[in-house]
Amino acid sequence: MTYYASLMGVTMRYLVASFGDPLPWSECKDSWNATCIDSRLAVNMVEGDNATKVSSAELYFVNDVLKEADSIDDGIGSPDWRLVLCLLIPWTCICLTLVKGIKSSGKVAYFLAIFPYVVMLVLLIRACTLEGAGAGMLYFIKPQWDRIFEAKVWYAAVTQVFFSLTVCFGNVIMYSSYNRFSNNVYRDVTIVSIMDTCTSMLAGLIVFGVIGHLAHVTDAPDLSKVVRGGAGLAFITYPDAIAKFQFWPQFFAVAFFLMLFVLGIGSNVGMATTIMTVVRDRFPHLKPSLVAFVIAIIGFSIGIIYTTPGGQYLLDFLDFYGASFVALVLAVFEMITFAWIYGVGRICRDIEFMLGIQTGLYWRVCWGFVTPVMLAAILIYHVATYKALTFNGYVYTNGMYAFGWCVFAAGVLQLPAWALYAVLKRKEATWQDRIASCFKPTHDWGPEDPELNAKYHESVYKYEQTLPAGRSLGRKVLDNVFH
After folding, report:
1. 104 among the known binding-site residues?
2. 14 with 33: CB under 8 angstroms?
């Protein structure tokens, strides 16, 4: 959450700079580099003499905004005061959004959810009017079938979905805890999943439409050489393209970075609300405003390290060891717990009890077999082909790699640690009985309403009476998924 907010700080820096005329990244500065070339110029930087030159948009991002160091061997340096001030803005917005708890964040969510679509519609219309936009959009949606079986592609896709839908980060569970018992979760997850995919596609069409225009005006023969990944796409490639706009580049720069900022605030509010919910569930006497203020102060204080010249080194490092990798491991065990410990069959019966809807075969097969197997396969391949993380060619020290694995362990070892805690809390006489009882729902598991709880346990009892005694392992597997 803290490093994600730091990206919002960088976005705010660009948003403020977008009001300048000319755009500050459109022209080179004498202090930057002798090989710099103005981004406002329509020149081919892929081939010929310009291939060795660097655009002013890239140098603005690296030298002016981040003041990025060549390495962090001698430390990460001192925070940049401009980025610190810009970092303060998103955390202030998050704090104000959460000041009254879920009620205030729920109201703000309407703006955070709707406003970006208005901006994206404007940007999409503009992108479609640019020469070469069609080639960029086609590049975005055209599959590269030769890479369909590359595990790293699936790993990137899975981690992207995790972040996009905040899977395995607690947000979904937190929001669902505020739902009515009979809330149509089937409808909600369908809408959210479809809208998430459509939004990603819409954003991709906008960005790659502009990149296609960039390739067109610079006469670049291969669009793939124009595209950058990660933060470079938002803070180098897209600004580089906007700098070449002949018509009102400031407006489209402001619109783009404002959209990014609002989307980022929406995501960060969800993560912060999850922390607030956990804290207030444990300490209900605490005021929402106090919890929100403390979360913002701690998050802002930690985020300051990302405003240093070595901040991007740490951001990339912690993103890998502390977020993406950990989320995938937790997702595998979460799916195993969901599908084979609690059970697909019981989940489906719970859904039917709550909504009166029978779960189809597609969902049962996906939950029971397809998703767990695919996630496990991606994780195994990722571990088997693991290579030490580098940042723009920089190899971290052995001490940093050791620290990274400690961060990874701190996240993953939560599983066995809390499992052991659950076993120790049980009152059964033998360890075998204690462990076995941990794999079963507690006696009070079910709806909070006493009447519904009684009906729920009655339905569970009736189902268990229909099961034959002495079932084979194969029969148990079939019953778990298909019964």
Report:
1. no
2. no
